[in-house]
Write a structure and sequence with these properties.
By secondary structure, this protein is mostly helical. It is about 75% helix and about 5% strand. It has one domain.
Length: about 140
């Protein structure tokens, strides 16, 4: 099935075409994200899930009336932006944690390591909710 056919089917509300897109590009995106953006398999899977949701919501919300490139190009473009955002958030989180580590005991440091490890494995959207409270990053909380 062509990209144009898939796009038209999505516009008409056919969610089965979303499954086709998901299966068609998932593994290729994961491989690309790992090789080009040095992310984990789990992060790449989470990001691809978010990409598909964003793509579908843009079509359903009528923000995307025509397909000006291939679906793959569009998905990978969204993915590139999400990967860049993930890297920036991760760097910001690391900076906040390193500042806080200067003032903690060893027991607290073990707790922080556990929390940091858990946060790094989270879906980027969930991590953002936990690390960006009311629009202010951890230094403002």
């Amino acid at each position: 099935m062509t990209d144009d056919n898939l796009f038209l089917r999505l516009q008409s509300g056919d969610e089965d075409s979303l499954s086709i897109i998901y299966e068609r590009y998932r593994n290729e995106f994961i491989d690309w994200a790992i090789k080009r953006h040095n992310c984990t398999v789990e992060d790449a899977k989470d990001i691809f899930q978010n990409i598909v949701v964003i793509f579908f919501m843009k079509i359903k919300g009528e923000k995307m009336k025509t397909l000006n490139s291939s679906i793959k190009t569009y998905l990978f473009g969204i993915g590139k932006n999400l990967l860049k955002q993930r890297k920036e958030e991760h760097l910001s989180l690391d900076r906040c944690i390193s500042i806080e580590l200067e003032y903690v005991t060893e027991k607290d440091a073990r707790k922080i390591d556990t929390i940091t490890n858990g946060l790094s494995k989270m879906n980027p959207l969930c991590r953002e909710i936990l690390t960006d409270f009311d629009g202010r990053h951890c230094s403002g909380i």
